[in-house]
Known about the structure:
The chain is of the alpha+beta class. It contains twelve helices and five strands. The protein has helices spanning 2-8, 30-35, 39-50, 55-62, 68-71, 87-96, 116-124, 134-151, 170-176, 180-183, 195-203, 242-305; strands at 155-160, 165-168, 207-214, 219-228, 233-240. The protein has a five-stranded antiparallel β-sheet. The radius of gyration is 54 Å and the shape is elongated. The termini are far apart.
Amino acid sequence: xxxxxxxxxxxxxxxxxxxxxxxxxxxxxxxxxxxxxxxxxxxxxxxxxxxxxxxxxxxxxxxxxxxxxxxxxxxxxxxxxxxxxxxxxxxxxxxxxxxxxxxxxxxxxxxxxxxxxxxxxxxxxxxxxxxxxxxxxxxxxxxxxxxxxxxxxxxxxxxxxxxxxxxxxxxxxxxxxxxxxxxxxxxxxxxxxxxxxxxxxxxxxxxxxxxxxxxxxxxxxxxxxxxxxxxxxxxxxxxxxxxxxxxxxxxxxxxxxxxxxxxxxxxxxxxxxxxxxxxxxxxxxxxxxxxxxxxxxxxxxxxxxx
Length: 306
């Protein structure tokens, strides 16, 4: 390519260039293979001859070995050799990945390794992380979600499109005095009125908030319904407001009693006023009569004296 470039640029004048495209032609061809000559050494010879040095001088520079020593190099082995983990170490990594049985070894390849065993070995060798396992991360996320659902004080349950309970937390079990195994996969109507669930599904509502009193449990509940259309479930979150509502009812009863007492006091005051007015009226009439009689008596005495 360099020779062709020189021809193109007019740097070669009065020269004949042989374009030999066959393999191992010219330098490195059959003759060179027989002599076990080096292509690099041959190239150096051509360069030296081209600049006018004598073959003897060039040979002296190359040395007795034809210049091989001048081209020699040593390379250090930098490969990192890992000790293969033991079966106990692999089993320990399996446990950390949540793989307790052969059925848990999905070998899905989502981590980039062909099998779960190869992934475990890579983790032991420090070439991979446990969190690279998608099934493991999915289980971990679900476990954290379940923990949050179970520790929340609010009752939570989910119902599928067939109105069967798919999930229920500890707070809901305590609220309705039921065990999870007694209600899971069972109709929600066993513990709650299914009307609101049916309404959510049929009307296509995504959210509904309401307050309901359940006489059979003696509970006032604030209920929030959420319809996950893609997942095909209705989630109901319930907050027990029975104490607050009872306190409110007691306060209303107390206010009613106080109002009645006030009405009674007013009635008594009015009756007392009427009684006092009646007594005052009678006293005034008697006084009037007495004064009239006294007046008549005085008048009669004056007439007799005259």
